[in-house]
Design a protein that fits this description.
The protein is built from 6 helices and 9 strands, in the order E-H-E-H-E-H-E-H-E-H-E-E-H-E-E. The chain is an alpha/beta fold and about 200 residues long. Strands 3-2-1-4-5-6-7 form a 7-stranded mixed sheet. Strand 2, helix 2 and strand 3 form a beta-alpha-beta unit. About 35% of the residues are buried. Bound molecules: glycinamide ribonucleotide (GAR). The site of glycinamide ribonucleotide has 14 residues, from helix 1, strand 5 and helix 6.
């Protein structure tokens, strides 16, 4: 399956996906990595892996819709069948989501629907939850509101800072995202409305 990745920053989830492709046989081909930020580490990781990159910087467009239209053209040209958001820190507009004729997946550093949006780890600490975690979900027209594919809990420890909690969650993200992609691509998920059921793995 031909996949594109959008990332805004450090790209450690992108790296986890690239590693899962090269070392663990994740059955997707990353055909392009796009970013709204020029010069990010994510783009450098893609270049090292020999993957074409594109920058879609908002300031180069008259408005957000034009930027997203350009991203869609790029994805169509590359015959993208799956879009993976990996630390892409902009919300894709409803028009983009309606026009994308492929699934769009995202990873978010909280147990959704708690703490959607920016600074999820800070929100969790400020709220005082004892358990947070991460969620891989399909993207719909809302904010981190699409059907949930996989979630995993991560404890919040006494003395945690935003950074220490983010790091503990990130380690789980790097395992959970490739696993969710694998299950979706291999047809191991069944969706009824919002509910996504994970089908049992065959025992070999
Ligand atoms: C990750 O923690 C990801 O879950 C989060 O940004 C970080 C990106 O790290 N995404 C969001 O908050 C999306 N709303 P990375 O660039 O190292 O993959």
């Amino acid at each position: 399956m031909r996949a594109a990745v959008l990332a805004s920053g450090r790209g450690s989830n992108l790296q986890a996906i690239l590693d899962a492709c090269s070392k663990d046989g994740l059955p997707i081909e990353i055909v392009g990595v796009g970013s709204d930020q020029p010069g990010t580490v994510a783009l450098k990781r893609a270049l090292v892996a020999g993957i074409p990159t594109r920058v879609f910087q908002l300031s180069d467009y008259p408005h957000r819709q034009a930027q997203e239209e350009d991203m869609l053209i790029w994805m169509r040209e590359n015959r993208v069948e799956l879009l993976l958001l990996a630390g892409y820190m902009k919300v894709l507009g409803p028009r983009f989501i309606r026009q994308a004729n492929f699934p769009v997946m995202n990873i978010h550093p909280s147990l959704l629907p708690a703490f959607a949006g920016l600074h999820a780890q800070r929100q969790a600490l400020e709220y005082g939850v004892k358990v947070s975690g991460c969620t891989v979900h399909l993207v719909d027209e809302g904010l981190d509101s699409g059907p949930i594919i996989l979630q995993e809990a991560v404890p919040v420890l006494a003395g945690d800072t935003e950074e220490s909690l983010a790091q503990r969650i990130l380690e789980v993200e790097h395992r959970l995202y490739p696993e969710a992609i694998r299950r979706l691509v291999l047809g191991k998920v069944e969706r009824t409305g919002r509910r996504v059921q994970i089908l049992q793995q065959e025992v070999i």
